[in-house]
Amino acid sequence: KSKGQPTVILAKTVKGYGLSDEVEAVNKTHQIKKMQLDSLKYVRDRFNLPINDEQLEELPFYRPAENSPELKYMKARREALGGYLPARRKNSTSLPIPELSIFDAVLKGSGEKQQSTTMLMVRLISALLKEKAIKDHVVPIVPDEARTFGLEGMFRQLGIYAAHGQKYTPEDNEQLMNYREAKDGHMLQEGINEAGAMSAWAALGTSYSTNNLPMIPMYMYYSMFGFQRIGDIAWAAGDAQAQGFLLGATAGRTTLNGEGLQHQDGHSHILASTIPNCVAYDPCFGYELAVIVHDGLKRMYQDQERVFYYLTVMNENYEHPEMPAGVEEGIKRGMYLLEKDEQATVQLLGSGVILREVIKAAKIMRDEYQIHSNVWSVTSFNELARDGMACDEYNRLHPLTETAQESWVSKQLRHTDGIVVSATDHMRAYSEQIRGYLPDNRPYVTLGTDGYGRSDTRGNLRSYFGVDAAHIVVATLKKLADEGEVENRLVKDAISSFELDTDRPVAWAPQEHPQVQAVAEYHEYQAGEGN
After folding, report:
1. Which of the 8 DSSP states describes residue 187?
2. Are 238 and 227 in contact (CB under 8 A)?
3. 440-496: per-residue pLDDT in tens?
4. Of 121, 141, 357, 423, whose CB neighbour count within 10 A is largest?
5. What phi and psi, each to the nearest 5 degrees, are found at residue 208?
């Protein structure tokens, strides 16, 4: 009877309600497998069912008449819900995806200007928001750190959606790019709430099915706080065939230096690989990012392919070259030849920010050891592995009648010589995925960032995990020595030249926290002094 204010109804239920004194409000109700005849009669009489005693012994089903109020009501409810069986819209309205040239500003490189891939991703989103045909479908989402990612310009431009508008004066109200909420806001700021942001992303990502209104959610967050934190929602979104972009920013174990293990992600791509329709990439250069985003838009919103994209972007600033000719297919497939050396006897693979360390290593080996290398940019070890698995599956099921299929990795390396060495900012398991698809059982060395992060400089972190140029050079020389192509003395000299610590514990071994160890040593000192 309350008026003008919310009303809460607390409904108290009784176990076995209406099922006779034998069953109602009895703790063992859920264990009772069969009701006695007297109890059945009680139920029939209490709910006024038109079943006589003789029929009751046969436990008949009761169905109201077709013209009864009950059946009319139930049928009307089913019609309002869209039918008797759950159904989803297979195809939706296609969006007119613009040509790749929309991203020309990024494809042409940064010149001498240093930028991070996170900032370049923001530029790509901004370009999409200027496209009249699709701008209303693009929804930036951020749970935290919008200014860190460079998204604050969208506060004023788009507004942050709030059902009741802005109800307070924001702390940054005197800044040009201040926090602005609005009823017609176009971006979502979910607070420090990754689960809420991911749920909003999933709702937008399935809008093509539920509403025939395809949306392009672009959720940017610290990569460490993605699959590791909301993995179950990501799996459910994949199961519901959501589409859109997840943008793991400040990604990689060593790119966000100084933050320790809290933020240093070296495993999100491995977690992404467990979701079958998650297409994941770890690009290094802006043009790679642009090609991948454009391909994702076409696959999801033009070709109606039910996948979603996970892209890792970094906060490290460096120069980005112009896109070389003819690399688009390799970028999308997961691997392409970045630097070709006609005398190459080594194949170096790198992804993300560590590709730049691979490029440095190739130069050191050429200039100081006269060992020539091809440098390959691997944009996705996950996609290479899936391609390899698909080829294996096809060949196994077509043993005689069909031409064997060859993996993309094998096709790229088939006409090259030498050992293969890979380095990434992720755990070794990430690049280990392709070992079985190298041609001719080619010797393969993987370098990665297994173990917890550390608070230190990028250079020290990459040395600690063994993924910097120096360790790539030493790993290559050691494998060449194992193959009998160089002397072990050369490896020893390189280790000395780079002043590598050869007696350090491996990065993934259990180690006592330095502060804990320091406290223990202090107490030991005190005990020795008799204090």
Report:
1. B
2. no
3. 999 999 999 999 878 888 999 999 999 999 999 999 999 999 999 999 999 999 999
4. 423
5. -60, -35
Q: Phi and psi of 465, rounded to 5°? A: -85, -10
CA-based nearest residue to 427, from 217, 282, 212:
282
- HSE of 502, CA atoms in CB hemisphere, 13 A: 11
| Cβ atoms 241, 306 nearer than 8 A | yes
pLDDT on residue 508: 87
- How far apart, in whole angstroms, are the C-alpha atoms of residue 336 and residue 329? 8
Distance CA 25, CA 34 (A): 16
CA 178, 183, 185, 191: dihedral to nearest 10 degrees? 70
Cα 80 to Cα 68, 74, 76, 91, 92: the distances in Å are: 19, 10, 6, 22, 21
**What is the signed CA dihedral for 196, 202, 299, 134, rounded to 10 degrees?**
-70
Task: Return d(Cα 260, Cα 280) in angstroms, integer.
Answer: 25
Per DSSP, the residues of 222-258 read EGGGSHHHHHHHHHHHHHTT--SEEEEES-BTTTSTT
Rounded to a whole number of angstroms, the CA Rg of the chain reads: 30
Contact 349, 362 (CB under 8 A): no
